[in-house]
Sequence to fold (578 residues):
Amino acid sequence: MVNITIDNQKISVPSGTTIMEAAAKLGTPIPKLCYLKDINEIAACRVCVVEIEGKDRLVTSCNNVVTEGMVIYTNSPKVRIARRQTVQLILSQHDCKCATCVRSGNCTLQQVANDLNLIDLPFKERFEDTPWDKTFPLIRDSRKCIKCMRCIQICDKIQGLNIWDVTSTGSRTTINVNGNKKINEVSCSLCGQCITHCPVGALRERDDTEDVWSAIADKKKVVVAQVAPAVRAAWGEALGLSREEATIGKIMDALKKIGVDYVFDTSFSADLTIMEEGNEFLQRFSKGELKLRPMFTSCCPGWIRFIKSQYPHLVPQLSTAKSPQQMFGAVMKTYFAQSIGVAPEDIYTVSVMPCVAKKGERNMELFYGEYAGHDIDTVLTTRELTRMIRAAHIDPKSLKDRECDPLMKEWSGAGVIFGATGGVMEAALRSAHYLVTGRNPDPDAFKIVRSPSFETGVVEAEVQIGDATIRAAVVSGLGNVRKLLEAIEHGEVHYDFVEVMACPGGCVGGGGQPIHDGEELAHTRGANLYFLDKNAKIRFSHENQDVMKLYNDFLEKPLSHKSHMLLHTDHTKWDMPR
Fold:
């Protein structure tokens, strides 16, 4: 142990502890802007400086470790003056129009500046203006960038895509797309992890809320919304609701109050996805098509963008099943539209997702009869949903639990856990067991595929289904995905079925979820989904009676011609980058 003194308080900490970590143990948070533990420890912002007795220069606390007898001052006059000047300089190159920024009230720079009581800027303001394609799902505002380098490090170290890089030198140093290319010229997966780890509003999703308001105002349109499983685990965080208060029923109530005509839970179409993808896997497995390479899940659009740009030769190994979002959209504009007597072109489909890549996925086309358009018209992230709730002046505490609308309102616990890494695999194995043996397994028989922690990138398991042994793997985070694919390609491992999620921890950690700077809440949110599954009245996708009715009345059976036409896709129809 190392004995030190921080702000006149003595403390003993393990060797290798940074000054910042030691101060935190005493309940003294040192302000920071660029620091992300084990990811971005470059002290670029200089906001975390402290004074050490016996040293003339201030030192950064995020990447300097304590030494025996060290005496540290975290808020001495010298520290305070330097910190104020540093933040004032940063603000002089940051567009401070906070009232029109999506991160207002949830901005680390804003919080640090307020804490330092900065009420004026002595330096001349100078903003960088870099053009950006505002139609792209991911938006970068160069006027707000503080050059903290977090986006570079997250994309390189965690996702392994190297989309961002430092350009220019000296006072002109800035961040831009690697190679000074346009964002739509590179292989961005749209995972959105750069957004959720940006300390300010320099990175955000394209805001599509006005499109939804316009559709609601259009008397000719019937607005139909679906809400993804992962959204229920996080939406309340931005509105001051506890996990117990923030139910899916209250989201449905909020959407109805906003003006949406019909509301549904995407867990329904997650069950539908399992029926299609599970049967497809059993078919390909029994035919021996997976002896060399596994079948990969296809419900994560960030992953689809990744494999198409990085490993295009593996695209045939993807399941042909559309994602739950797209399946629901297709069913809404056909089966549901017919049931309420409305033409498909008058149905306006909205999906509320934890994901930025879903905004890209909605470009998928739908052709049915005389209709030519899209499964989904608009995708909103969880953050956009909460902004719409605020814009409608809805008090979150006033919301009541409301059921989904009839015809597609039933869901299973298997559908709910789609939002957590391992959930798709577990749901698929539950129903695959039934389809092979004719009996349900214990609902928790396959929980071995669940991720034990946020840090766990890959989970492997061998499970018995009938007489067959299925070698399964679950992976989340594109950096981990690349390592796994390389191991498969080099023959180091072999699997039959692999679930892939682009975002670490799965959809619950998606790029469209509420932002908590410095916190990773994917595992906590995932635990909430597993709790809902444990207490669900139905825990198997094949027991969802509304899904069974959909097959009996419209689709006939899984993998039927109509199912293929509406619920499956050809992944080779478009190329990356896009």
Notes: The chain has a mean pLDDT of 96. The two ends are 53 Å apart (CA to CA). The first helix runs from residue 19 to 25.
